[in-house]
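Schema walk-through. Below, the input block comes first and the output block second. Nothing else is stored per chain. Lengths vary across the set, and this one has 1111 residues.
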Amino acid sequence: MDLSFDTGQRRPRGRSHARGRGNWKQQEFGGRGRPQTHQENNNGDRDEEREHTVCHNAKRLYPVGINVLKGWTTQPPDLVIHSLLSDRSGVPQLLAEPKIPDDKLVLFIKVLARASTCTSCRQSLIEIFTMIFTEDFVNKLVTFHISLMTSQRTDVKSFLEDQLQLLKVLKKTLINQAKEMLPTLLQTVMLVIPKLKNQSELNELMTEYEQLLALLLESQKPGPDVGERKRRPFADRLADLDDLEPEDDYRDIPIEPTDDELLQLEAPLIRRNITEGAYRDVHNYLDVQFRLLREDFIRPLREGIRQVKSGLKGVKDVRVYRKVKFQDTQIVRGKLVHFVKLNFPKNFKVEFSKRLLFGNVMCFSANKFASSFLATVAGHDPDKLKQGIVGVKLLTVSKLDASLEYTAVESRTFFIAYKHVLRALQFMDENTLPLVEHIVFAEKTVQPPQYVMNAANVHYDLRVVLQNNYMKAQDKADIFPKSNTIPPPNDRPDLQHIPITNAEVDVWPRSSDFGLDRSQRKALHSALTKRLVVIQGPPGTGKTYLGLKITQVLLHNSQAWSRKETEFRIVRGHQNRRLVQTDDVDVSSPILVICYTNHALDQFLEGMLNFTNRIIRIGSRSKSERIQSYQINEFLLKLKKQRILPPNIHHAKSDVHNKVLAAEAKLKSQYAQLQEVVRDLGLLSFGLLNLYGVIPSSIVSKLERGQLYRSWMLPIDQMWCMNLKYDPRQVWSKPVQVHGDPKLESSAADDKEDDEEWHDALEMLREAENERIIDVEEDDLPTGTALILPRVKSYEFERINPIEFETSLFRHLKAGLITKEACEITLKKFYKEQRILGELLHFTSSTDVSSVANATINEDFDIFQLAYNDRCLLYCLWRHKLLAKMRETIRPHEANIQRLMARAQEVKNSEYLHVARQADVVGLTTTGAAQFQDVVQELKPRIVIIEEAAEILEAHVIASLNANCEHLILIGDHQQLKPSPAVYQLAKHYGLDTSLFERMINNGVAYETLKYQHRMRPEISSLLVPAIYPELKDHPSVQGRDHIRGVERSVFFVSHLEKELAETDDNNSHSNVHEAEFIVRLARHLVLQGYDPEQITVLTPYSGQFFLLRK
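--- output ---
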C-alpha cells in the first residue's frame, strides 16, 4: 500500500499490535513546537503595580503605565485601537495629568502612530483622535518640543517620525480639527528642528512638516480666529463625523455582521442622530438610523470577541462560554433547532440570570474566531436548562461542524427585533416614508391629516367623549362578536358638529362640556386636527384614558378617513413638493395601535372593548382574559373550523404543509443517521460507507462487496488480539457521571426551597421572554410529526454491555437453547471482537485525521497485508470523509426546509391580513410590529397611535409606518423613561437614546402636556413638582385621602448603613438583607392595622432583592 500526502503534518501516533512495517509513505515534516511569548517586567515602577491593582476594578483610577504602552507598540494596530478605547485603558487619566512625563509622552506618540496605520477601524480611529487632540494635549506637545532644544535625548528623530505619521493621518481623518489644532504645533516643530544637535539628519523631516503645514493653511477657510473659538465638548466634536459620507449604500449592507466587522474588529462609519435640526434628505436620515441601530447590536458581539482574543474579562452584557458542544438537532415547529451544551461558571445560577433569553444572539467559533457563525437562542426546556442545554437557531447552517468544540459569545441584544427593523429601513425611501416634512426636515408647523385636507369641510361628532360605550351602530355581520355599545344621545347638539378643518381650539366647546380638564381638551383638539401629534403625559395624568378617547372619536367618525376613492396626496421627498396620485389604495384599513409592552397593549385594548369589539391583537402573549378571545389566532381557528378562509389561502397552506412534512422526513432521517455516526458506537457498516462513496472501488471489490469487511477490521483469529489491554467490562462498570458533586446531599427541605426559587426564577424569565416571543400558534404546521424514513444501517457491529450479553447468553444456556460448548465459543468470540472494537474506537477518538485527509491509496496494494494500525488509520480516514459527505448532503435539505418555512410564513401572513383587514383596530407591541413588518405594511393603516412612544427607539417607530400613513399620534413622557440602546456609548455620544417623540419636542414641534394628575397623593406628587414637572397640578380627586394607619407619615424615606450582599447573580444585581427584613416586617405591621394583603404592593428594581423578598 502506498499513501501520499498533501499535508506537512506529522502522522498521529497510534498503537500497533501487528508485527512488520506499516505502508505509509510520509513527507518530511517541520518542527511542531508551539511558539511562546515570555514577557518580563524588570521595571518595577509604581505605575505598573497600580496597573495590576486596578485591572479588575470597575473604574480605572490611575494613568496607563510605561510597560503597558511598550506592550501596545508591539500589538497589531487594530488591537492597539481597541486597547486605547477600553474603559480601563488609563488613557483619559494620562491626558488629565498636569504634565505627562517625557518618556511616557514619547511612547504614547509611538502608540498613537501605530494605531493610525490601521485601515480597518476608521470610526474607532476618529473617536481616538477626537478624545486625544484637545487644546490641552497640543499645548503639552508644544511644551515638550521646546524642551527638546536643551535635551540630550537620542530618540528625537524616531519621535518626530512617529509624530509626523500621526499628524498626517489626523489631517486626512479630521480635517477641521487638524486645521484648528495643528498649525501652532507645526510652527513650533519647525522652530525647534534647526536648533537640535542632529538637525542635519532631520532635513527631510523638516521638509515634510513644512508641506503638512502648507496644506493645512491652504485648506483653511475664513472664519473666527482660533483663539476666539470655544473648545467644544467631546459630544460636539463628533460633529466632524456628521459631514462624512459613507462609501457604501446602507441598502446594500447585510443585516448580519460580516467577518471583518466581527473578527477583524472593524468599526463601521456611524454618524450621530440629529436630535436638533433637520437632516439633509430622506436617504441621509435613513442611513443614519440604519447604521446606528445595526451598530447597537453588533458592537457587544465585537467586544465579546475582543475579550476572548485578548484575554480580557468583565465586558458588560456579554457572556463567554468555552468548550461548547453541539449535542442534538431537532426540527421544532418547522425550525431547525440545535441543542448545545454550555459550561456555566462555578456558583452560577442560570435561573437568576438574564442569559439565554429567547432571541439573544450568540457567535460560535471553533478556531479562536478565525471564522465564526451566528445563532439566536430558540428556547430552552427548564429541566435541560439546569444542565446547561439550550436550543439555538443558526443563522448560517453551512459553517456548523457538530464534531468540533466551540467557544461561544452571547450578547443580550434581541436580534429578531433588530433584523426586522433594519430590513424595513432598507426598503424605505423618499416615496415610502410618510410625514417627511417633520420626521426628516423638522418642520415646526403641522398641517391637518391629509384625509382632512382632501375633504371640503370636515366636522366630527364628539358626543362619544361623554361616555366610554357611545359608538355609532355597526351593521356589519362578520367574525367579531356583537358589541354592547349604544348610540350617543341626541340631547347634546353642541357636540355633534365640531369643526376639524382649520378649527382653532378656541372655537371648540369648553372643557366641562366634554368632561375633560383644560389640558386634555387641548390635547384632544391637537390629536384630531394635526397629522403629527405629540402628547406628553406625566404620571397619572390619563395618557391611556386620552388615547382611548381619541380612538373612540376617530372610530365614531370613520367616514372622514375610510373613504374608497382615488385621491391625491402631497409627498415631500428631497425638500421638493410634488403631487403623487395614489391609485388602488385601501383607505378603509384599521387603526394601528402600538405599545411598548404586552401589559400596556392589553390595558389599551381592554379599554377599547367598551366602544368596539372589532379589535385584533397580533401576538399570543396576552395575560388578559378579556383579550384572549381577540387574539388573531383565535379568529383564525374559528375561520378554519367554519371553512370560510379564502380558497387560495387554504390551498397554499395545504400545499406547503405537505411539502414541509416530506422535507422534514428526509432531513430527520439524515440527521438521525449523522448523529448515530458522530456518537461512534461501533464499527461503521460497509453499506453506509459504500453508499456515500468513501471506500475506493478497488477496495470494495477486494472486500467482496463487504462480505470480508467485518473480519478485515476485526481480525479475531490473529494471536496478538488476545494481548490487548482493553477490557470492555471495566468500561461498562464505570459509575454514571452526574452533574454536581455526588457527595453533596441536600435535605428535602432544601430541595423544596430550591424548587420554589427555581419556579420563581422561571416565572421572571418567562416575563422577560413574553416581551420577545410574539406567537405560539396552536394551529401551525404540525412539524415534528414526520416519521424517520428507512435507511441503511449505521453499524456493522456495536459495542455491547458485556454484563447484559452474558446474562442473556446464560439465560439461553439455562433454558437449554444453547450448549455449553457453543456458549463458550460465543462468549470467547464476543470478547475478542469487543476488545478489538474497543481499540478501534479508542483509536478513532484520539487520532487527528487531518494529517491524512488528502491521502490516496495504491490500488494494487494487497489490503490484507496492511498492518492493523494502518487499517485503523484508513478506517479513520473513511469515517472522516463519511461525516463530511453526510453533512454536505444535509445542507441542501436544510436550505430547502428554510425556503419552505419562509413560504409557510408568507401564507401565515396572508391569513393574518385576511382577518386584520376586517377589524377597526389592530394592536401590537413594538416587537410584534417589527416581526410582522410585512403584515403592517400590507395593512396600510392611515392612522397610527403609539403609546409609550418616548421609550421606543426611533427606528422602531419609523419601521412601523407605511407610505399611506397620514396621521401619527405619539403619546408618552420623555421625562420618565428613554429608549434603552444596548450600547451606552451610542446613547451618550450619538443620540441613539433620543426617541422620535423627544426629537420632535427638541425641534419645536408643538406638543401638548397633560397637567392634572389623578393618581398620586399630594405628598408624592410634591416630590416631582417643580423639579421635573413645573406645571403638574393635583386633581381634586386625589385630595383628602385617608391617612395610612399605623405610620406617622404617608410618605417617608428610610436611611440606613447596612451593607448590601456581595453580587452573586449574573445580572450584577443587588440585595440587602436589612431592607428585605424591614419591608417584610412593615408589610406585616400594615396587615395588623387591618389592611388586606391584596392592598399592599412591594416594588423593587433589583432581581436580587426580589428573590430575597420571596425567599
